[in-house]
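Priority: low. Protein: dynamin GTPase. Input follows.
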Amino acid sequence: MGNRGMEDLIPLVNRLQDAFSSIGQSCNLDLPQIAVVGGQSAGKSSVLENFVGRDFLPRGSGIVTRRPLVLQLISANAEWAEFLHCKGKKFTDFDEVRQEIEAETDRVTGANKGISPIPINLRVYSPHVLNLTLIDLPGITKVPVGDQPADIEHQIRDMIMQFICRESCLILAVTPANTDLANSDALKLAKDVDPQGQRTVGVITKLDLMDEGTDARDVLENKLLPLRRGYIGVVNRSQKDIDGKKDIRAALAAERKFFLSHPAYRHIADSMGTPHLQKVLNQQLTNHIRDTLPAFRSKLQSQLLSLDREAEEYRHYRPDDPSRKTKALLQMVQQFSVDFEKRIEGSGDQPDTVTVICSHDASGNQLRHQEHPRHQVRLASVPSRSLWGQICGCKGQVCVFCRTGLFTPDMAFEAIVKKQVVKIKEPCIKCIDLVVQELINTVRQCSNKLDSFPRLREETERIVTSHIRDRESKAKEQVLLLIDVQLAYINTNHEDFIGFANAQQRSSQANKKSSAGNQVIRKGWLTINNISIMKGGAKEYWFVLTAESLSWFKDDEEKEKKYMLPLDNLKVRDVEKSFMSSKHMFAIFNTEQRNVFKDNRFLELACDTLEEVESWRASLLRAGVYPERAAVSPSENFSMDPQLERKVETIRNLVDSYMAIVNKCIRDLMPKSIMHLMINNVKEFINAELLAQLYSAGDQNALMDESQEQVQRREEVLRTHHALKEALAIIGDISTTTVSTPLPPPVDNSWLSPGAGSRSNKHVENNTQ
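Result:
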């Protein structure tokens, strides 16, 4: 025997779910949960079993339901049950279901009336049910028994509240007719979470067990102690009926006979009994479904509208039509060309995520203009001693090239300049490599729209990438040629070149400024290495180098000076890197064999990088602290006289001036060369040559073969479009074949307020006398 009221609604819901399943979506109707709340032995489990039409819940006296039972009803072709804690095991005998509930309850709570908030999850599959969730909750009790805790009432109350406070939960407040209704804990709990009474239905059980001469007529007529949705009386099977295996069909017939034959209830018999309770709940589910349908209709109509154009195009689609393939090829190549140019110019649909190459404000422009100088060697890092050796090595040589000479060691100047120009090659080549990589990435991004035709995408990427690689070699040849042109002739007559006289003047002015005052030449952190472990070991200090002294401080605020060392008679020498240290070192010593710092004959200083060491040595040279004289052969011997030192400074100024000219020229020509030889050329190739190359690559029909994903997409669009239209029609049918009942008007339920019980008791007593 199933739930007859719900069986009327099952076909409609199944049709709706089938309509959604056909388009791969879930019909998320979110049907309400139904929670059965009441005191111990109020008949809650019997009411719940009537929804399933099966005997499967434990029975007995006292507290029987000691854990929440979350019962999920699922519509299926066959009938069986399964537990969440016994996944995969099917129960077809519902007596075994009862035994498993009892065993699982005892496993967690023990066999001595203990309770637990951990729910038992049971699923019942049946063709006679809707997809609903029913919840059987422990009966409300006030006196602990057995292993129950002292606060048993609060624990059960909290357990019940967890479920009934949800807005989608219908509350069946079950109260036995032979108890004081005004003090019903079930109704009071329902009032706490549903003060307006919109989702509470009162259920009066055990009407057949009332004292002789008494009845609950005024309550069932909603005259006494009214509820907004009223009360429904039911007559459940007695324990004797259950022990005698009286089935639910016979019990329903006996219930019907009771209401028709009882003089106090015969006039309301049609609105009493389990079938009517099922009908009321069924109508509530119908109302819920009808309330949900407008949102579903809007969603489906929106999806249908978005697919209309695509479905219309696919409806007349012929995959093997040669004219269609030719047209599609032309459109794809044209779209690829437009997308490529938009991304290059920085005006594509995603300019913030695409690396742009041409636009002055785009990252590609920064790439060409910033990557190049970033890789150039700064002149400040050129070792001065190396410069000195190069100058002196060129001493006495005669320049034979037909240009105006600078001064006697001009070959040293030329050699240094050429070494610096050669170092520009690496960053220039790297700049081209980066541009090539960005172009290839852009090609791949633009070819994403060709995914429907995998052969076309593959050929397009291959052809364009091959052309980019070809242009890469030509661009590199041109850039290297630009640098070779710079190496071919050192143009000292350039209008921006300072010339020997100006360089010498700058050097003299710098020397005068140095001698005129204690000018700060350099500041930075250095580590003093030769401090004994007894005195704390190596320490890092903030050093300040001026034209007259070298001082160091505790930190860069320069408030606490540790020492000041005059530069008189100081020189610099190399110190080999220690095996145990990662730092690079140099030392300062006194040429007259005096202590430099306290008891130390020399001051050993360390930096993190070799470049820092060389930079500090260059700064010390400017301050007049020269390198220690190295042992050299007679042919390479040179003097450390001040005149030669001034020449070194002069050459530095000359090299600095000339390299600024070279850098300016290269930085101007590099982006122009890349634009002309690569970017513009690739754009022209895609516009003018790509289509011809694709035609010559092979069979055009094979080139335009669709991918399997595209075939599936087309079929899915057509199927979804048809299913959406069918689902909308089904929703229309449900809207016209079901009726929504309005919510009953509010009633005065102030009797549920604290302190109202005594007044209500008098009414009940008067009614029963």
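Residues 350-408, 630-640, 755-769 have pLDDT under 50 and may be disordered. Residues 642-688 form the longest helix (47 residues).
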